[in-house]
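Subject: Sanity check before I submit

Could someone independently write out the structure tokens for this chain? I want to compare against mine line by line before I put it in a report. The sequence has 305 residues.
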Amino acid sequence: MTTTVIPFAEGEAHLDWIALTEALAEGHRLPKAEIADTFLYRDPDTLLNRAAWIDGLGSAVKSATIFPGNSARGASSINGGVMLFSDADGTLQAIIDFHLVTKWKTAGDSLLAARRLARPDSRNILIVGAGTQARGLHAAYRAAFPDARFTIWNRTSANAEALARETSDLTVATSLEDAVRAADVITCATMSTTPLIRGEWLQPGQHLDLIGAYRPDMREVDDVALQRGRLFVDSLDTTVGHIGEIRIPIETGAIQTSDIVADYYAPEAFARRSEDEITVFKNGGGAHLDLMTSRYILDRWEART
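---
Independent answer below. Compare away.
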């Protein structure tokens, strides 16, 4: 059996954001994923392996090398690949570009939540953070909310302005508070370890999408934001005890685990109840989502004409 190799540009040409969210939803109808992460360190470098196995979908291992010093040499600090294995016989079916899977998994995860939790008539979408994920989030949200106006805020305004020059429908915000208050959807993808968004800024009917925090010491919003909104996560297993956005306020008593309404494995509860409630979603991006996304990418690659 020949192993398929899917590079970034050629693979992305066959993908569709809405179809990906449907594939993610379908993946959560299968038996619950078994997942495991391993970390190896050589200060300051890291080798991360994330593995997932879903009965009926197969298994995947996503390996990433994080070399912070690369950026000083003009090279990417994160590199890697995803290996996708057959559910039937365990053979290696595909090796997929790491950045392709990460981009589509991360934004697709948030888009699935937004399709369920954001008001369908949302017209003002704020992107907080102008890093790598900002472009994917803009493309994903544009697919589901084609009539929306987009605003971007970044601590370093020059980075936001550079992204806005690349994308004609992005307006740069100078005040984060004003931009949050005016938005229908706020999608936040930063590397912040201290809250950027304050709950007192939130308005009735908003949807807040939190992506950036992935370590136990990282947060993008304060306790009040979590207390004011109905809280959802993509996976209880990969967020509650692992990510600071959820772990820290639980440890301090600001919220309880029972305040989390649902994850994707409880689709009947994963929904907005009213026009004026505030919904908050934590995107944890576990390995099971890498597997679901990789399977979708391979399926589209094999179906190409």
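---
OP: Matches mine. For the report I'm noting this point. The two ends are 21 Å apart (CA to CA).
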